[in-house]
Batch of 2 targets.
Target 1
Amino acid sequence: MSRLNEANVELAQEIIARYPRRKSALIPLLHVAQEQNGYVTTAAMEHLAELVGITPAEVLGTASFYEMFKFEPQGKYMVNICTNISCQLLGGEELLHHAEKTLGIRPGGTTDDGLFTLEDVECMAACTEAPCLQVNYRHEYRLDHDDFDTLISELRSGSRPDIPDHGTLGLVRQHIPDGRMAGIDSPEKTGSPEWFTARSSN
Ligand code: FES
């Protein structure tokens, strides 16, 4: 299974250079890995461990804390439907059942064509727009069942360029030009900060 490709190794080195310690770059690097394959592969985690100088177990230990990182193949579109209280009161559960019927899968499942993964999720901080859902973490608000079916048709036909494939965090890649870096050195180079030395000698 996939390690990072050549272009992403180059990107990874650029990201690592922004941090005083290599391992501090781990979270953005996990996003790079997830963007490449739609999920974080075991080989990618081993590769990240080599790149930042920690063990694969440490990479997994960090990544598995975060719900957004997935460790097995996902649909191209992850549909997260909220069934917490505000959404539930305004039809969130019925929307989820409708989605199950439309897509022919249960929460946690992926359609046979690999296009959609369905999830039943907790509040996504858009309670005033209930019932709502996210596709690849992009919100859709106040949906009735017809709106849901329209959304699925649009995704199937590729007419939603505003929603990228699962794993893509931003549509625009951040590049920090040379000379604009924060230039922070690690404590190994600079020594402990004064406030820390003062506190530890008390
Ligand atoms: S309860 Fe659904 S977004 Fe808050």
Note: The longest strand covers residues 77-82.
Target 2
Amino acid sequence: MSQDNLIKLECSVCHRTTHHTYRNKKKVKSRLEIKKYCRWCKKHTLHKETK
Ligand SMILES: [Zn+2]
């Protein structure tokens, strides 16, 4: 029933998976790129969807 999929967000600087989020595949077709706080880099970095 749910169309939301759990995805991982990887920091583009240190390449660690730092966040998890849900994405609605019907609404978002492109890869996510979000600025989020990375606790390893200790700053806001660009995070990208990974699998
Ligand atoms: Zn990082």
Note: The mean pLDDT is 84.
